[in-house]
Amino acid sequence: MTQSTPRAHRLAEIVAKLGGELVGSPDIEIRGMATLESAEPGDLAFVASAKYLEQLNGTRASAVILARAQGGATRLPRILCDDPYVYYARAAQLLSPVERPSAGIHPQAVIEAGAQVASSASVGPFCHVGRGARLGERVVLGAGCAIGEDAQLDEDARLGPSVTVYPRCVIGKRTLIHAGAVVGADGFGLAPQAGRWIKIPQTGRVVIGDDVEVGANTTIDRGALDDTVIEDGVKLDNQIQIGHNVRIGAHTAIAACAGIAGSTRIGKHCAIGGAARIMGHIEIADRVTVTATSFVTKSIRTAGTYTAVLPAEPGREWARNLANLRGLDRLSKRVRELETGSKSKTKKRKR
Amino acid sequence: MTQSTPRAHRLAEIVAKLGGELVGSPDIEIRGMATLESAEPGDLAFVASAKYLEQLNGTRASAVILARAQGGATRLPRILCDDPYVYYARAAQLLSPVERPSAGIHPQAVIEAGAQVASSASVGPFCHVGRGARLGERVVLGAGCAIGEDAQLDEDARLGPSVTVYPRCVIGKRTLIHAGAVVGADGFGLAPQAGRWIKIPQTGRVVIGDDVEVGANTTIDRGALDDTVIEDGVKLDNQIQIGHNVRIGAHTAIAACAGIAGSTRIGKHCAIGGAARIMGHIEIADRVTVTATSFVTKSIRTAGTYTAVLPAEPGREWARNLANLRGLDRLSKRVRELETGSKSKTKKRKR
Amino acid sequence: MTQSTPRAHRLAEIVAKLGGELVGSPDIEIRGMATLESAEPGDLAFVASAKYLEQLNGTRASAVILARAQGGATRLPRILCDDPYVYYARAAQLLSPVERPSAGIHPQAVIEAGAQVASSASVGPFCHVGRGARLGERVVLGAGCAIGEDAQLDEDARLGPSVTVYPRCVIGKRTLIHAGAVVGADGFGLAPQAGRWIKIPQTGRVVIGDDVEVGANTTIDRGALDDTVIEDGVKLDNQIQIGHNVRIGAHTAIAACAGIAGSTRIGKHCAIGGAARIMGHIEIADRVTVTATSFVTKSIRTAGTYTAVLPAEPGREWARNLANLRGLDRLSKRVRELETGSKSKTKKRKR
Fold it and tell me: Which residues of chain B have pLDDT under 70?
């Protein structure tokens, strides 16, 4: 479920697989990726931005990944490419491939009658797979997962330990869910009557697409009647809360601790910052960025960046800001008096 | 633990059980609830608010629930009632009743000596029930729950998978706790001494009343000395944090990601919005509403709505707001100068 | 794993072990700690602050802990000391010592080949300990923990139920981790390419020092290349999110629901309030306090208190604040016009 011990590759092999222009000996052996600062001989490092160029001097890396325009910044063996950060991602995938546990159902897992588990799937100890659930080819369940009745995990889906998938929910291909995440618990559906809350059965599902990532302890509620939908390629960080009947558009990324209230629709290719909050029952257009900690209270129709960030300041400065904010009514009144005062003076002059 | 496949009911049966006035054939068979938009033949839909009335035109629902005043808005078979949203909740409960797993202790659960499990209770696989714990009639534990020593779950309490109840905590009747919730972990009790933190044993309990709902991955800390108390009928959404020695009054509802710091008391019938934060050691009166994301820093003595929301804006507009806020000191000074200037002028005139 | 039933101690024994000056009979038997308000005979209470002194009148406690200067405030048997709150912590530890489960591996735990478990360690049911993992002396795993391959838990580390420690992570001595916490899930590392996200393997570890506490459902991500580091004595409350490659300095305490974004370094002896947010890639000096809910957006070089708190207000007052904030541009313009107006008048006079 995690990266295996890196396997050594010659620089020539890396370039043969990932492209880029090699400057230096093709036979240098790379055993892993590292930052410029912590690299040891045998490591491949990278320069993702010009501000790190000066770290090239002290690095002990055996080779570096560089943007083509910066090819002259070092005499180290190097791979020149269009996007060093993407190249780093690809090289790291090559050097530290995901290690899958061997196929098979652990003898201490419980598979209920009528569940289908592909022979290439791997089910860890203490997993419970409910009646009618289907686990596709090469699906991996970490220890202690609970898969509800009639849930469906498509091929190559991987779950960390202690993940819960409630009944009838669907997890797409190659989707990765980290430990403690909960998919498909009841949405917060309550009808008020005479000072009490009447529970509304949540009969929709959660449907998660392909190539999605769901962070540790993130929760995605099932729909009240219709489904909650996470489209293909969406990336959710840790401790995110997705309310019932939300739809997250394809390839949108949401950072940790964000919360999306019920029935909201977020477009494709959006970027939602950490701890951002989005009100329920609104719509966010494609390619919208919401900055960390901001609270979106109404629909956003146009791509762009939206924010309401109050940066922390030394206590005394903030106290003054707050006092000023609260004194605005009085300040406004004083300006009005000044305006009226000068007006009346003007009037007097006119007379 | 979740809603079963809906069981078909004739309209006449529904009205016989739930009340309301039936207009149309009593023999129409209803197989489930749906929204007006996604309803198929066989579905019962509802109009919770006048703004959805126009969706009546296109709906394929076999019948709809309507407020009495709106009975003329469609020619579809319909149930007229006082509160269509409450009726929807009741009808959904009728059509999709909670499905309980069969009674009994799974052979792969561990029940420690001295624990009492009612014969009608259902204990899932991989549950651990500690010494002296008591599980009442019809209690349901999902897979992988950990129930600490001397904990008590009253009749009809239901826990989703991977719920932890720490020792000596009490869960009331019919209370429903979703996956990953943690009841009774240590409160954050630390005494500072010479730059280190000394742990304060947390010897109180968590006592949860009847008919409470606790969302997925919500955490409720045990008291330091006295108990943390969640009164009857409280509804807690996902990922809420309740600090030690908090008391939440009956029938208060708290939306996802809210946090209540230690020793705070919240009244009855309050509504706390998503991601709202409430400071420790304060008191909130009954029937207080706190809007989503707001931070309550001092006690609230009077019912009403309290808020401090900054809605996100396009980046440029927000930057201007922030610059204005920070420029207030100077603006205030300029107004003072204008006032002094005009005053001195006035004085001169008076002379 | 939790506090045992308190063991009775005579006041003389307590003072012999913890110091302080005893006034009153040394033979009074103390069975537990309590608050002044809820104490019963047999309980030891404490006055942590002068504002609780008046509660001394009604208390039923058998003895109280008091600051030396307040020794005359009651005639009850009492222990006088320098810091009653610290004394309370120590006395509670004495009266309610941590109860460790008996050593041994539960027959329903799975220990993979090559894992090393000290004979004094206690492994609960449904735990999975991966290949090459090492559990030191007296380590305690609650039910349902998952310990990844080659992870290391040093002596006296204790984990609540359903804790996940991903492969190769390190947990220091006496460190306590509450239920549902996730240590070492993948950091949120993504490289954007052509509108898609490419996953960056997260090959660093999480390294947690000695005497750390990690709250329930808190998540600490593993590093991308280098490690995420939690130094000795750090105290993390519930539902905290620590991003990849963060470093938290020794003896820093962080309250619930806080979030620290990736690659940020927090100094030693800091206090981060509940739901505070700290931006990624910045540095916070030693002894910095960040108030609850504040968002730190840039590095802080100087010890002190930093904040940006907007206290919730009655809805109408807040609406006026917000309108004022948004009207500042216009107000500013009006002040400018007043200034120009008076200036032009002044000029006229000069002519």
Answer: 1-6, 342-351
- Report the run of H or E that residue C337 belongs to, with start and end: helix C328-350
**H or E segment at A345?**
helix A328-350
DSSP string, A170-234: EE-TT-EE-TT-EESPPP--EEEETTEEEEPP----EEE-TT-EE-TT-EEPPPSSS-EEE-TT-
Confidence (pTM): 0.96
Q: Between the CA of residue A88 and those of A35, A37, A84, what are the distances in Å?
A: 10, 15, 6
Note the pLDDT tens digit of each residue in B236-259: 999 999 999 999 999 999 999 999
Chains that touch B (3 or more CB pairs under 8 A): A, C
- The pLDDT of residue C350: 43
Q: How far is B351 from chain A (nearest CA, A)?
A: 17
- Which tokens in the block code for residue C211? 């005497």
Tell me how crowded residue C110 is: count the other CB atoms within 10 A of its CB: 21
- Pairwise CA distance, residues C226 & C232, whole Å: 18
Chains touching chain C, criterion 3+ CB pairs below 8 Å = A, B
Q: Which secondary structure element, helix H or strand E, spans residue C198, and what is its range? A: strand C196-199
Q: How many CB atoms lie within 10 A of CB A188?
A: 28
Contacts of B351 (CB under 8 A, 6+ apart): none
CA A155, CA B307: separation in Å to the nearest integer? 47
Q: Which of C185, C284, C175, C187 is nearest to C245 (CA)?
A: C187
Q: Are strands A182-183 and A219-220 parallel, antiparallel or unpaired?
A: parallel
**How far is B145 from B134, CA to CA, in rounded Å?**
14
Active site residue A9: no
How wide is the angle at C-alpha C171 spanned by C-alphas C170 and C173, nearest 5°? 130
Which residue bears the tokens 């714990």? Answer: B133
CA dist A197 → A189, A244, B59, B260 (Å) = 9, 18, 29, 21
Start-to-end CA distance of chain A, whole Å, equals 88
How far apart, in whole angstroms, are the C-alpha atoms of residue A233 and residue A212? 5
Q: Determine, for residues C106 and B108 on separate chains, whether the beta-carbon distance falls below 8 Å.
A: no
Q: Helix A328-350 to helix B328-350 angle, to the nearest 10 degrees?
A: 30
Numbers of helices and strands, H then E, in chain C? 4, 40
